[in-house]
Specification:
Radius of gyration: 17 Å
Number of helices: 0
Distance between the termini: 16 Å
CATH architecture of one domain: Roll
Mean pLDDT: 94
Low-confidence stretches: none
Order of helices and strands: EEEEEEEEEE
Number of strands: 10
Strand order of the largest sheet: 6-3-2-1-7-8
Shape: elongated
């Protein structure tokens, strides 16, 4: 089980995009793809077979998982995540600052 999952709202805590917020669109091994964060311009060659138009496109690049923190909507701050096992045996994530369950 990972601390940061697809669909989580995260805040960038270090780097060029520090302070930006966005939703995780994809989780890689030790990196995450966050919508609207770490954008680069890529020169794209046209490919008529695939219907791809050429030009300069903007795309999101992965950011290391240590540079993002999960957004806590209750405290309105980035927060750390821990794991807890409930009485029924389910393993759930919770916010370290106030102990509330994440996504429940």
């Amino acid at each position: 089980m990972r601390k940061i999952r697809k669909g989580d709202n995260v805040v960038v805590i270090s780097g060029r995009d520090k302070g930006k917020r966005g939703d995780v669109t994809r989780v890689l091994l030790d990196r995450v793809l966050v919508a609207g964060v770490n954008q680069v311009k890529k020169h794209q060659r046209p490919n008529p077979m695939k219907g791809v138009q050429g030009g300069i496109v903007t795309k999101d690049m992965p950011i290391h998982v240590s540079n993002v923190a999960v957004w806590n909507p209750v405290t309105k701050k980035p927060d750390r995540v821990g794991f807890r096992t409930l009485e029924d045996g389910r393993k759930v994530r919770f916010f370290k600052s106030n102990g509330e369950l994440l996504g429940a």
